[in-house]
Write a structure and sequence with these properties.
This protein is mostly helical. Helices cover 31% and strands 5% of the residues. It has a four-stranded antiparallel β-sheet, with no helix packed on it. Helix 7 packs across helix 10.
């Protein structure tokens, strides 16, 4: 009989497959059955990019699935080529279990960018203490500074003004050269700062020039000349002016300049006393109501004018008298 072909004597392909299966089972550790492989797309914490591979030795942290927030310090550390734990692919991740436990407990790591509030330095802490002390003020300035406390932007009470005016209806000033020194005649004198006072209401102050004349000259030019508070004054168009030379023995003037009283031609000492009393009532003036336009009265006028937004003339002018309700 003829010999059969060798192909018939060789074992069939179906008989070799079980040998491979047996070999795989033999390689598995005894007592631990092999677990079915899970597709990479369903593993928790796996990267979503298609075609991404996990190198041998890389660890996948439990609980790193969707809905978990990564602390700010770990988010900034994640870059292309790094796994979900912030470490390069294939690098060991020490403390991965500890980080996973902290995330499960809800612990949050403060962001590294947080800074402590700045501390005060000795230079800034002692800045106020090293400030130069203010220059000492004169006693008159100190009195008026104290009087001005809480008096800003106040307006006089009209009823109080009328009451003061009625009380001073027969007021007459007396010379007090010890308390209020007299000024002297100076033909070249000009009212300081008056060139900057704008408006027709200040024209008499800008144009004022002290003049000395005898009684005949004054009588021929003005129909009203009176002795008031130790000196003679003449009245002209709402203002009283010193009448220098009218009587050389009666030349006591606390202020050399026009004093506005309005067209009712009230005596200047009475108007000055009214102004002093009202400013005293408002807290600007702490001196005596004496009807003399001395330094304390002029400082009080300056403070009141500044608070009311008026030109600071330190004199009784039309805007100031109108503001006080006495115009």
């Amino acid at each position: 009989m003829a010999q059969q072909p060798v192909e018939q004597q060789s074992p069939s392909k179906g008989k070799r497959a079980p040998e491979k299966a047996r070999t795989t089972e033999a390689q598995q550790p005894k007592g631990k059955p092999a677990k079915p492989e899970t597709p990479a797309a369903k593993q928790p914490g796996a990267m979503k990019e298609r075609g991404a591979t996990t190198e041998r030795g890389a660890t996948t942290e439990p609980g790193a699935g969707k809905g978990r927030k990564t602390p700010a310090s770990q988010e900034s550390a994640t870059a292309p080529g790094a796994n979900v734990s912030g470490q390069p692919v294939g690098a060991p991740t020490p403390g991965a279990k500890q980080q996973a436990q902290e995330r499960r407990k809800g612990m949050k790591t403060p962001p590294p960018s947080a800074k402590a509030p700045p501390k005060a330095t000795p230079a800034t802490a002692g800045a106020k203490a090293t400030a130069a002390p203010p220059a000492p003020a004169s006693p008159a300035s100190q009195q008026n500074a104290q009087a001005n406390v809480g008096a800003k932007a106040k307006k006089p009470d009209p009823q109080k003004v009328q009451q003061i005016k009625s009380q001073h209806a027969n007021f007459r000033a007396q010379p007090k050269p010890q308390q209020v020194p007299a000024v002297t005649f100076n033909q070249s004198r000009r009212i300081e700062g008056s060139e900057r006072w704008e408006g027709p209401q200040y024209e008499v102050f800008r144009s004022y020039r002290p003049e000395r004349h005898d009684q005949g000259w004054y009588r021929s030019h003005y129909n009203r000349v009176e002795l008031i508070g130790g000196g003679y004054y003449f009245w002209n168009n709402g203002y009283w002016y010193p009448a220098w030379g009218y009587d050389p023995s009666a030349e006591y003037y606390a202020y050399d300049g026009p004093i506005y009283v309005g067209h009712r031609a009230e005596p200047p000492d009475k108007v000055i006393a009214d102004v002093q009393a009202v400013l005293q009532e408002m807290g600007y003036y702490r001196g005596e109501v004496d009807g003399l336009l001395g330094p304390l009265t002029r400082e009080a006028l300056t403070a009141y004018q500044a608070d009311q937004g008026l030109t600071t003339t330190a004199a009784i002018d039309q805007p100031t008298l109108d503001s006080l309700g006495m115009g």
